[in-house]
Amino acid sequence: MMLRSCIPWFIPIAVTLVSFASGVKKVAAQTVFPFEAFYDTDVILRPIENTDVSIATVSGFNPDAPYGLTNFTSASNYSRFDPAINGFRFFADPARVGLSGFPTGVDTFFGSGDDRIFGSSNAIAIIDPITNTLNGTGVINITGGAGRFSGATGTLNFNESESLDQDPSGPLRGRAFISGSFVVPQQVPESGNTATLVGIGAITTGFLLRRRLKSAI
Questions:
Q1: Suppose 156 and one of 68, 81, 126, 180 were both cysteines; which one would form an S-S bond, judging by CB atoms 3.0 to 4.6 Å apart?
Q2: For 138-207, what is the HEC assignment?
Q3: How open is the CA angle 169-165-106, to the nearest 5 degrees?
Q4: Which of 168, 176, 156 is nearest to 58 (CA)?
């Protein structure tokens, strides 16, 4: 009889204790993903009519790339020849080459699953007349991701080279080396706070329960 009378009173205390544990504050942490890989690339430059600008599309593949990101694409980047460097400048923002109404360039790393990282890049590619190659360097700013890379941010640098002794009617084939790192935010509970809250709740519950039992005797 005494035990039954205590049960209704004890339930709110138990619920409060559970609420303490489930409402524990979470703190932000970051996981760093170093990145370094070669990609075999295909580059296509498509001239935009009535302009001196071309749309550049790059695709790359490496079956052994880190984190299963075997594929790389760079779509809708804009290039213009710059005689000052004897080469091309590439921009993700079409406004940088005086265009409006065109999409912003997007770089994507992906594989067979849901994991992806997204970004945008700017680059230059200089013609070397001695080796007859096009040598490019640039930076990819990582601005997001999907799967386990959701919320990714970071910076990747790349160097790329293509021989100009190729069939001009097909894609320009080359090789790119991409390196850097990106971080992904993680939410983890403050373990110290969890233990403290649960401990305080358990001690308080025990004390009040003993006092309740004594008063009922």
A1: 180
A2: EEEEEEEEEHHHCCCEEEEEEEEEEECCCCCCCCEEEEEEEEEEEEEEEEEECHHHHHHHHHHHHHHHHH
A3: 60
A4: 176
**Is residue 6 predicted with pLDDT exceeding 60?**
no
Measured in degrees and rounded to the nearest 5, phi and psi for residue 213 equal -65, -40
Burial of 142 (0-12, 13-18, 19+ CB in 10 A): buried
Q: What is d(CA 78, CA 47) in angstroms, rounded to the nearest whole number? A: 10
Which amino acid, residue 74?
S
**How many CB atoms are closer than 10 A to CB 59?**
16
Q: What is the mean pLDDT of the chain?
A: 84
30-34, 86-90, 118-122, 209-213: the lowest-pLDDT one: 209-213
Q: Please count the other Cβ atoms lying within 10 Å of the Cβ belonging to residue 60.
A: 24
Would you state the structure tokens that stand for residue 163, as one six-digit string? 């021989």
Task: Report the candidate in 160, 128, 211 with the shortest Cα–Cα distance to residue 42.
Answer: 160
Q: Report the C-alpha gap between 54 and 79 in whole angstroms.
A: 5
Average pLDDT over residues 181-204: 65
Please enumerate in sequence order all residues whose Cβ is within 8 A of that of 162, keeping only pairs 6 or more positions apart, or say none.
Answer: 41, 43, 133, 134, 172, 173, 174
Burial 143-181 (b: 16+ CB within 10 A, else e): bebbbebeebbbebebebbbeeeeeeeebbebebebebe
CA distance 65 to 156: 14
